[in-house]
Amino acid sequence: MTSVLIIGAGVSGLTTGVLLAEAGMSVHVRTAAPPSESTSCAAGAIWDPLYATHERVPLWSGVAYRTFAELAVSAPDAGVRMLDGIEASRTRTTPAEYASALPGYRLCGPDELRPGFTAGWRYHAPVVDMPVYLEHLQRRLKAAGGTMSIGYAPRLADVAGEAPVVVNCTGPGAASFVPDPTVTPIRGQLVVVENPGLDEFFAEHTDDLREMTYLLPQGPLLLLGGSAEPGRADVAEDAAVAERIKARCALIEPRITSLPVLGHRIGIRPVRDPVRVEHELVGGHHVVHNYGHGGAGVSLSWGCAAEVRELIAAL
């Protein structure tokens, strides 16, 4: 039985742990903080692989889409919903290549577009309630015999060799853990309000990610987004950013205008060009990297975890 130590318990670390443990490997996950405090827990988590760079993104994201679609049916307590919605652009543009292959895809008519938007398309996609979903992954990990502990690992060189295989799922921490100076933190913030009755998502398609607009129904809650601040790695609430988010979203859905803010979710996207999923020998010890997914960690999670499993099986 292959023994594996995974460093990191965000969505990449837990998903990898689940797949490896369910494949019969002996898996231990070490994390500096509980999954509920990870940057993954703050994610809006609509399936959208657009903002990740790697030639295998179509493959990885396809695996994740199919897995989430299955979970939405087979595991009603996993926090995964398959929703219809609109992705729209303020400029005339063509849809992302992946969108046209999705269930329910069609171009929007002019009457379906919100004010200020000139093009849009509809499709069916997973939207994941991350606090609930991370609990689901932890239950699966435990059920498969995997274990988890809280412990800080400052450097890869300190843990390489602690197990026959170490899997690096440190996300934004990879910048110092590996160290990998090509990992860039990009801060994102969401605003949480009561859901006034939305059952479809809205996502802005734009190259300017600093103040993109999206509304993601999560049952009784509605997540409003978003922001992207390169180089910023603090997770303190920014009232000015939150105010702008709510104002932009109110133009899309006026019913939220008077709703009180129930909370904020702030996370750090670990951006790397390209995403790193590969085997490396560190001091003669086997290490498999799985990090740098940017804002597409959830969207690539099952595909990247499956690739890690294949890399380990080939050792």
How are the SSEs placed, and which strands pair?
Elements: E1 3-7, H1 11-22, E2 26-31, H2 57-74, E3 80-89, E4 106-107, E5 119-128, H3 130-143, E6 147-150, H4 156-159, E7 165-168, H5 174-177, E8 184-194, E9 201-204, E10 214-218, E11 221-225, E12 229-230, H6 239-252, E13 263-282, E14 285-293, H7 297-313
Parallel strand pairs: 1-2, 1-7, 2-6, 3-9, 7-14
Antiparallel strand pairs: 3-5, 4-5, 8-11, 8-12, 8-13, 9-10, 10-11, 13-14
Helix pairs in contact: 1-3, 1-7, 2-7
Pfam family, one: DAO
GO molecular function: D-amino-acid oxidase activity
Catalytic activity: a D-alpha-amino acid + O2 + H2O = a 2-oxocarboxylate + H2O2 + NH4(+)
Q: Can you describe this structure?
A:
- With about 325 residues, this protein is of the alpha/beta class.
- Helices cover about 25% and strands about 30% of the residues.
- The protein contains 7 helices and 14 strands.
- Strands 1, 2, 3, 4, 5, 6, 7, 8, 9, 10, 11, 12, 13 and 14 form a 14-stranded mixed β-sheet that branches.
- Helix 1 runs parallel beside helix 3, helix 1 runs parallel beside helix 7 and helix 2 packs across helix 7.
- The mean pLDDT is about 95.
- Keywords: FAD, Flavoprotein, Oxidoreductase.
